[in-house]
Records
---
Amino acid sequence: MNDRSNQPETVLHVGDVRKVYGNHVALDGVSLDVARGEVVAIIGPSGSGKSTLLRSINQLEVPDSGTLRVLGENIDFSSRVSASQLLGLRRKVGMVFQSFNLFPHMSVLRNVSFPQERVLGRSRAEADSVSRDLLERVGLAAKADSYPQKCSGGQQQRVAIARALALEPEIMLFDEPTSALDPELGLEVLAVMRQLANAGMTMIVVTHEIHFAAEVADRLIVMADGRILESGVPQQVLESPQTERTKKFLSAITDR
Amino acid sequence: MMELFLKILVAVPTTLLVTLASFALGAVIALPLVAARRSRFMLVRGVGKAIIDVLRGVPPIVFIFVIFFGIGADLIRWEPLPAAILGLGLISAGHLSEIYRGGLMSVHAGQYEASAALGLTGTATFAQVIGPQAFRVAIPGMVTWLISLLKDSSIVSTIGVVEIMFVANQSARSSADGLMPFVIAGAVYIALGTPLAVLSRWLEKKLSFGRSA
């Protein structure tokens, strides 16, 4: 609690996680520890397993084996995960998707308020007041009564971030949050994410935004073929990659 | 002429009762059918599919005859009206379950994922996220079915339900009005069906959630 040592609390531990689809090995024994307030960026070619890893953390994918510990919630993938464990886990972890996945039949305000009412048991008035604060923070107070279809992709993604934050998660997962956006609209999403990182949120971001990763992340992880190839301070990984595979991938995303 | 029209008009409530009651019955029975059809157990899926195929595959008149004359004669005695509602209700269940399924399939997988990631329970996800979106897509199909049910309810005249077609038929046989009873019956069906089409368009628009389509 009053931890003043140099070792901040580990909020997420992923231990030797494996996942096989047919004869494709998506995750080949991946382990990862994330400290409170840390921002981890994961890059890698498509099919490298980075999204599968992220989705394993909140159990949208169920790995074949391995362990997961999220703030005291212990899960062993070799045995069946109970429904209450699952809900407990998901309450601690928020997620933002590439395709936003807002609820199209609800206004922006309802999108942010409805999960609070259902998951946290807040009254509508309470939830709406939290929602309006958050929409203000992501610069969308004026859009509260609009439907998602009337918002740009960048605005929708910022609503999705507000919706996840409204449940007060301890960890936020971002699965290629800007990949479906025009570069300019991506910037407004990255700005919100930067603000969130500065506020001390623990974040794991799967992304192709190498500049964002270099600037905001505390740690950069490079994945390929279901494994972590490199992990370290972004500048160091980007400037002196240790493997040929990483060099090749980095030149593909930076030298264009 | 006026007398004929009034005679047919008196039968309208029965046509509406048969139509709406069998639609309501079908709309409810369709729910377990679509659940079975989407079950993760192959056996349950197979049974659901078989039931739906039978309900949709047998001509309505055969279905009604089997229920009224077959089951009605041997097992339980019943009036034409409940037999008609049960028969058309079951047929409706078969069609509506497939219309529901189409609606459910139209909902993007991301909606289930977002609901799960937010920690919503399965019930909340279905009732408040998936259901409303599927329903909107299902409305045109449901109303189309309701309109054809309104017309097809005329076949229950064959088992003696005194609805529009029964009265028209009776009048045609017992008078020299020729085709007139059927022309009037046709006009009455159109007059009953048109508001339904209007209702459908209104509902769709109301549930468009800001989409322009």
---
Amino acid sequence: MWYPIYKREIRAYLHSPAIYALGGIFFFLTAYFCLGMIVEYSDIYNDYTMRQVYGMKEMNVTEWVIRGAFGVFNFLMLFLIPVISMRLIAEERKSKTFEILVTCPVRDGEILAGKFLAALTLIILLVSSSIIYPLIVERYSQPEWRVIISGYLGLFLTILAYLAFGFFASSITENQIIAGFLSFSGLLFFYLVGDVTSSKEGWLGRLASEISLRQHTLSFSQGVLEAKDIFYFIAFCVFFVFLSLESLKIRRWKI
Amino acid sequence: MIIATNLTKIYGKTKAITSLNFRVAKGEIVGFLGPNGAGKTTTMRILTCHTPPTSGKASMAGFDVVRQSLKARRKTGYLPETIGLYEDMTVLSYLEFMAEIKNSDRTSRSKNVSKTMEQTGLSKVCHRLIRNLSKGFRQRVGLAQALVGNPEVLILDEPTVGLDPAQIKEIRTLISSMRGTKTIILSTHILPEVTAVCSRIAIINLGKIAAIGSPGDLAKQMAPDQRIVLKATGQKDAIISRVFRIPGVLHIQQQKPDQGETIPLYLIDIKKDIDVRKVISSTLFNAGCQLYELYPVSLSLEDVYMKTVMGEDFKNRD
């Protein structure tokens, strides 16, 4: 029964001017940063003096452009996903459509699956447009496709994890703005926690590094697939999906 | 068809409903009456599997609302008090979505949706966006989504709220037409609505069922004695003293006649199960009075409701 919900959500996205505006902003920002990096790389590459200033005889396009691009994509997800996920449950609660939805013969898990997969589809559609930048690079240079593929895999896992967290934030309040804020601030915490405390020694520093979202994306953008990173993102996603389901259940008892 | 046994719901320290017991037979229409905050909506939310009870049991079409929630929901259509609709959808696409989600048979789905739109008068607006509909039409869409999928049981929380008199009549006729085929509970504040549509009424007050039965039964239960209206001319004191002496008469008092009416009007309270109308007419005839009308009156539904909800306060007000 998740499929009718999925279809309805996709239709709602397609009819929402806000989603088109969001897509436009995303395209603009990715173009701004990625084309900026490509232009900068090209300038330095063609200017022998500048290469000497940077202390490089050989320049690697994968390091200069591709890794940077995935860093940008990962960072933009911090803003994009809370904006998309904040409405998932909160809006339904606010507009009272949830009251009818939960009295229909559909499980909480099916509601979650329909909405989660629809949001995931939308984000993947938006992100898939970014493939144009590796293709541009490919036209003029030889990027390492191993890094590009692992970068996209890392980005996909990041999206899953962020979306699960955003869904959970949306399930605990009926105010979209609060849901968006909770989602953004929570993700920002998980994103930065490793950087803030990485200098600290001891178990706290190690813990911060282990739970940091950003730390676990680094290996993907280097073309390395590490089981512990893959496991981290899957575990993060499963944990917050579980919490979202529990939140839906608890709120039924509270209502 | 609908059975509630010791149904209780507690929110924190507040008891929303306490040990509610009632049964609604297959094909019956029962009305929930009660002041705001009495527990009507809470009861309906439990019956529709929206909220589980704190204790007690409820079953819809033979399925327990907690243990067999999914099966119970398949048999139930629900119109909540505040209807939330997907504003970005057309009426048709919304009802198709609801039919699909209610797992209605794929082959008969579009037929079912068309029939429901026809029943609720939505056919002519089926391609309009819900956000552009008037309140009356939105209410109809709410009712239509409850009907779609052909559920055996309908729970309707104030189904005619926001409708104009003509629409109210249409919806009442529609609900009445489902008597015998669907089991329906509806809540309302409009007393004539329950008398027009429901075969039985449950008055809920302070989270408990204060009275349940047909309007006639409730009037009988609530009225300790009988009341007779007498319209007669003659000397007031003579009428009062002679009628009061008749065995079984408890009380007589003159009332203000209706506007434009010149014949004096008296209300006579008599012991239950005694008919003294014959004695009254002969007594007045012998006293030389002229009798115009003499008929028993029962409590109106409004009286029954007020008496049940307000209790002693209502008696004092009388």
